[in-house]
Amino acid sequence: MSLKCSAPVGCRVVGTPPVKVLPSAELIEETPGEPRLRRVTVAGTDVLLGRLSGGQVVAFSSTCPHQQTDLAGATFFDGRIRCPLHVYLYDPRTGENVIPATTADPLNLWKLKPGYLPVYEVEERDGWIWVGPDPKPPPPSYDPERERPPAPGTRPAAAAAAPAAPAADTRTEHPTKTVRVAPGTTFALRLPTTPRPGFTWRVEADGPLLNVVEERFEPGEPARHLVRLATRGVGEATVRCLYARPWDTKPAEIRTYEVRIEL
Fold it and tell me: CB neighbours of 167 closer than 8 A, spacing ≥ 6?
């Protein structure tokens, strides 16, 4: 029986046989910025499937290694998987972290903890997608020592000569907006977003009157970052939304909202 392998080079399955998980016709080719992943179960483990623009099928863990968040809303960016929460990028073929591991100051990598994304062998044959039950080995570039805090007073040799990652090229601070809401309710802010590798919105709500209850990326033209907040009590509070990479000290964009909670 001939096999059609989704990898660019012919593949050979060894060890535990792969599992038939999904008809090939049900997995749509990627559209950048739109989540088109399918969740399947392989040997009792949740795995996400995606089809790259060239037709190759990739299979990877449903959990982001950075903070163990769900990747169901992840999208493709330049052939990489982009986590919807912190916009980290992973190679879906090898699991290698691309952003921030290749751009951050090595001294800060232990704070960012990108890890690597577990990925699985994939085949297509007989009109079905088959996935290996065990993750592939970690990518060669992954070194757990780089993600461990340095000993006090030490500086890793590889990082000593490495320049710090550049901050954002420009900074845009928008005029403050006023939002009026009732106490005991929730309201949403939708932040226009130009996706940039490694960048994400950080939301700061001062005081006890506001609580962030949801954040998620909304693809579209333009893409937006949804922030949903719950109100507590009556009064005024400020919400600052900062668009930056986790290691930047100066955000590329700032949006400020004065929230008036009124009866």
Answer: 248, 249, 250
Report yes or no on whether pTM surpasses 0.70: no
> Which residues neighbour 16 within 8 Å (Cβ) at sequence distance 6 or greater?
132, 133, 134
Domain architecture of the chain: domains with CATH: 4-160 (2.102.10.10), 172-261 (2.60.40.2020)
No. of helices (H) and no. of strands (E), the chain: 2, 20
Query: Do residues 4 and 190 touch, judged by C-beta distance below 8 A?
Result: no
**Cα–Cα distance between 14 and 209 in angstroms, integer?**
57
> pLDDT digit string (tens) for 221-241?
778 888 999 998 899 999 999
The pLDDT tens digits of the residues spanning 208-219 come to 899 888 888 777
